[in-house]
Amino acid sequence: MAITDWPEGERPREKLLTRGAASLSDAELLAIFLRTGVTGKSAVDLARELLTQFGSLTQLFAASEAEFCAVHGMGQAKYVQLQAIKEMSLRGLKEELHRGDALNSPRVVRDYLQLLLGGRHQEVFLVLFLDTQHRVIASEEMFHGTLSQTSVYPREVVKRALAHNAAAVILAHNHPSGVAEPSQSDQLLTIALKQALSLVDVRVLDHFVVAVGQTLSFAEKGLL
């Protein structure tokens, strides 16, 4: 059945206008983005297929152009639009982090890290550099690949902290395995970075481990 044949109050666009965007499911929001379906499938049907194939909105945002365009009905134009939506979302979250205290905005920090790192297939180590008011000065992806004490260099993190005149940092990295549990290597790395940064009076406020749909805080777990 085409969406135009649905009861007006159940159509995604009308539902958004009357009940607000938060009332829509992931598939309904994605259907509004898609606008139209393909032969035999409504936009909502196609949206559900995309979410089933990629696993989540986070993983859909992280899909490569080739992976996205391999889906029947998708193409480069839709891929470009999707990436533009992702980038606007990231910039909006980053603006919030620039304006307020990151420690008082844990949801914004988590949302930003989840959108940026959650669906990555490669490990990424990221540092948020903060001023004395804990506002974000800069966000930098510093290391890529298999992360360990030997592949993340504390000296480089210290150099960037000094370059930004940062008073504190929030560390983050992702686990492509899908499990946001810190390994012993993660804990040893955090200790090494804390010790190195303390020498230049830069505090480590937290270390987040990010997996799809999960974000674990070292501080909240008492690991910092």
Please, could you describe this protein's structure?
The chain has 224 residues and is α+β, with helices and mostly antiparallel strands. Helix content is 45%, strand content 16%. It contains nine helices and five strands; from the N terminus they run H-H-H-H-H-H-H-E-E-H-E-H-E-E. A five-stranded mixed beta sheet has the order 2-1-3-4-5, sandwiched between helices. A hairpin with a 5-residue loop joins strand 1 and strand 2. Helix 2 packs across helix 3, helix 6 runs antiparallel to helix 7 and helix 8 crosses helix 9. The model has no long low-confidence stretch (mean pLDDT 87).
What are the SSEs and their pairings?
Elements: H1 12-19, H2 26-34, H3 43-54, H4 57-61, H5 65-69, H6 76-99, H7 106-117, E1 124-130, E2 136-144, H8 154-163, E3 168-174, H9 184-198, E4 203-211, E5 214-217
Parallel strand pairs: 3-4
Antiparallel strand pairs: 1-2, 1-3, 4-5
Overview features:
224 residues
Give a summary of the structure in a few sentences.
The chain is α+β, with helices and mostly antiparallel strands and 224 residues long. The chain has 9 helices and 5 strands.
The proportion of residues in beta strands is 15-25%
Question: How far is it from the N-terminal to the C-terminal residue, by CA?
Answer: 54 Å
Dominant shape: elongated
Instruction: Give me the side-by-side strand order of the main sheet.
Output: 2-1-3-4-5
Q: Over all CA atoms, what is the radius of gyration?
A: 20 Å
Helix content: 40-55%
Major beta-sheet overview: 5 strands, mixed
Poorly predicted ranges (pLDDT <50, ≥5 residues)?
Answer: none
Mean pLDDT: 87
Number of helices: 9
Question: What's the SSE pattern?
Answer: HHHHHHHEEHEHEE
Which oligomeric state applies?
Answer: single chain
Protein structure class = alpha+beta
* Number of extended strands: 5
